[in-house]
Design a protein that fits this description.
This protein is mostly helical and 115 residues long. It contains three helices and no strands.
């Protein structure tokens, strides 16, 4: 019994450590992008601009993935995690109604009204 609860605490601690490391990496990468942007403002360089645009796009994707992971990291979110993956695989995009936090598309009128 004690070993089980100790294992849960250790697992949770390791999970939190992973989250913290990922967040720190993203923050550091963002700072690097800010420095590159400042350099680009001082001296226009087409290659640097192209690299910066590519890096910012990749960083944005990583941040979105991290945010989704944080939203769906609780045990009760297992079903939402499943549907999020299904929607992502299907390439479903927002067409009608209001977009919910998990990226699904509710059925509604085109103007966003549900009444």
């Amino acid at each position: 019994m004690i070993k089980t609860s100790q294992k849960k605490v250790i697992d949770e601690s390791n999970g939190l450590k992973d989250i913290t490391v990922t967040f720190s990496e993203l923050a550091e990468e963002l700072e690097n992008q800010e420095v590159s942007y400042e350099l680009l403002q001082e001296e226009e360089d087409a290659d640097l601009q192209q690299d910066l645009e590519k890096s910012l796009k990749q960083l944005g994707e990583r941040i979105n993935q991290f945010e989704l992971q944080m939203l769906l990291s609780e045990p009760h979110d297992a079903k939402m995690r499943y549907w999020s993956c299904i929607l992502a695989q299907a390439g479903q995009s927002h067409k009608t109604g209001r977009r919910c936090y998990c990226g699904c598309t509710p059925v509604g009128r085109k103007n966003g009204s549900f009444l």
